[in-house]
Amino acid sequence: MANITASDVNKLRQLTGVGMMDCKKALVECDGDFDKAIEFLRQKGQKMAAKRADRDANEGCVLAKTNGNIGAVIMISCETDFVATNEGFVAFTKSILDNALANGLKTKDEVMAMTIDGRAVADLITDQIGKIGEKIELAHYDIVEAPAVYSYIHPGNRMASVVGLSNAGFDEVGHNIAMQVVAMRPVALDEASVPQEVKDSELKVAIEKTKEEQVQKAVEAALKKAGINPAHVDSDDHINSNIAKGWITEEDGAKARQIKEQVAAEKAANLNEQMIQNIANGRLNKFYQENTLMNQEYIMESKVSVKDFIARTNKDLKVTGFKRLELGA
Asked: What is the per-residue burial (b if ≥16 Cβ within 10 Å, else e) of 292-313?
């Protein structure tokens, strides 16, 4: 058996980044052969990756960067905040992002297949799993291509964005819009960019909510007319509780239940559908105002939309697109 020295263990540690005890075990198992020990540690990483495949990786590092007319945002996830904030893990994420941008890569699959120092990113991630002992994965990689691109990383590396502008020379605007995207979480660039299924879902929710409110208003008006405080009878449990406390009588409780059931049914059957549609459309417009970038209020100036700010800055300037990533979103 080879004599394994502390210097040998440290050398292997410097080569692989794996802990001292694991490096010593690898050298012992491989009789001091460094190449075999490195392969031993890689296989250990593969086994660790298989064991942790079903674990949740809800923490991680989110970074963004630009290179020429391409901006990219990346998320590499892990299991704990301790690992996510580790300098080595952040540097690992940055290395993948830097190389992906340098190679002009546009998709997550291309990044996974990319080689760094002769090894595929997929294999490097497996190495990290063996080194760190947590599930690690390339969760997202998105790009924006435009004549001018800007990035923003929120402190803590949990949120980041890239934004494209139609014209160069507006660095402050681009930076601020990238911050806007991170802070205000728009779901689309403008109303036209919102997926139809999202529009349909939001309108459906708005219609149902409006109907419920109209029925509730009718019920409350009927209860007040009968001399019953609606707040005392808003649920069966509340009615029973208030009867027990002596705040309402048994008769009032029964009367309230009857009014609620009868009036709710009558109002639901006689709703003004056009009014419901108009109110729901108003709610949908509010959704666009709050959740589409161009219609949001500009974070740097109150009562001014991003669209109006851009137009005021330069009539030919346009936001061409954006990408945003956030841990847990």
From this structure: bbbbbbbbeeeeebbbebbeee
d(CA 4, CA 6): 7
pLDDT digits (tens, 9 = 90+) for 95-130: 999 999 999 999 999 999 999 988 899 989 988 888
The letter for the amino acid at 308 is D
Domains of the chain: 6-51 (1.10.8.10), 59-190+321-326 (3.30.479.20), 196-288 (no CATH)
Q: Cβ(305)–Cβ(288) under 8 Å?
A: no
Beta bridge partners of 76: 61, 138
pLDDT digits (tens, 9 = 90+) for 226-277: 999 999 999 999 999 988 998 889 998 999 999 999 999 999 999 999 999 9
Handedness of CA 75, 78, 82, 86 (dihedral sign): negative
State the pTM of this model. Answer: 0.77
Task: Look up tokens 């939309």; give the residue.
Answer: 305
